[in-house]
Amino acid sequence: MNNWITGVDIGGTHITVAMVNPEECTLLENTLVRQTVYPNESAAEIMAGWSAAIRACWKLAGLAQAKIGIAMPGPFDYEKGISLIKDLCKYDALYKLPVKALLAEKLGSTETEIRMVNDATAYLRGEMGMGSGKGAGQVLGITLGTGLGSALFRNGNYEDGDLYCFPFRDDLAEEYFSTRWFLKRYKEKKGYSLPGVKELAELCETDTEALECFYEFGENLDLLIRSRYVPEIPTTIVIGGNIAKASSLFFPVLQEKLGPEFHIRKAVLGEKAALIGAAFLWAPTL
After folding, report:
1. Are 27 and 272 in contact (CB under 8 A)?
2. CATH number, domain at 105?
C-alpha cells in the first residue's frame, strides 16, 4: 500500500480518517474511522484523540504508519502547522502551538510526513478529483453548515477562500450563511425556535414562512457571490455541507438570479471530499 495516504478531516466536533490512493482516486472504505472530539479539551487531550483515530485507521489498513494529509479549519498556518484559532469556541488550547510537530511526536512520525490544508480547500479539491467538480475549469467551492467555507480553483491553482469574513449587509457573511441564520430568521417570522435546518426544510411543503427563509437565503447567496467575485465569477459553483442537503429549496432561485451561464452543482462526496482532498496534497498534479 505504498501509494496510500492517510486522509484526515478535522472538524469542530469530529475527526474522520481513511486511507486514500490519490493516484487512482480511490478511498478504502473499510479503513474509515469517525470519532467524536471535544474541542475545548487541553492540547494533550486533543492530540491524544486525534492520534488514536489515525492509529485506528492504520490498524484497519494493516499499516504501522503512512503519510498524512490533514484538512483543518482556520485560521491556521498550514505550512508551519501552527494553530491560529482563538475565541471561536473550539481548539483554543492549540492557539500558537506547533500542532503538526505535536501530532507527529504523538504518532512516532516526523513533520515531513504530515501536510495540512484548509478544510474548504480540501473539500473542493476532493470534489474536483472525484466528485461534481471533475472536469470543470474555473470553480468556486462553497460549504454551508454551522459555518461558511469557501475555496477557488482557477488558472490551475487552488486558493483558500475568504467568504466567511467578507462584509455582508450589517455583519460578516458567515452570520448570513450558516445554520444559525436560518434558525434566527425563522424565529423572527414565527416566534419560536427549531432545532436545525433539516427540521425547517421538512416544513416547507406546508409552511410559507419556512419556504420564504430558503428563498431569501438563495437571494442572499447570489448577492454575496456577485459582491465578492464580480467581474470574475467562476462559471462553475460547487456547493456542499449540511445545508446543501436542502438544495432543491434554494438552488432554483440562486440559478435564476445568477443566470444560465453559471453551472451550480451540488457536492456529491459528503465528508469524504475533505479526506480525499487532504490526501491529494501528496499528489500535486491533482
Report:
1. yes
2. 3.30.420.40
